[in-house]
Amino acid sequence: MASLRNLAISVHRQDGHTNIAAALRQTARERLRPLTALGITG
């Protein structure tokens, strides 16, 4: 689980987010956002 959390944090930082908590909340609201961040179109 820690590896998945670290992956999520790394992806958000790579996207340029400095506030990880806000980025996680935004991701929770937009279900396709994680796929887009990873370069996967859904």
Task: Give a summary of the structure in a few sentences.
It contains three helices and no strands.
Helix content range: 55-70%
SSE arrangement, N to C: HHH
Distance between the termini: 24 Å
Mean pLDDT: 86
Can you walk through the features of this model?
The model has no long low-confidence stretch (mean pLDDT 86). The chain has one domain. It contains three helices and no strands. It starts with a helix and ends in a 5-residue tail after the last helix. It is mostly helical.
List the helices and strands and how they pair.
Elements (H helix, E strand, L loop, with lengths): L1 H13 L5 H10 L3 H5 L5
Question: Which properties best describe this structure?
Answer:
single chain; 42 residues; mainly alpha; 67% helix; globular
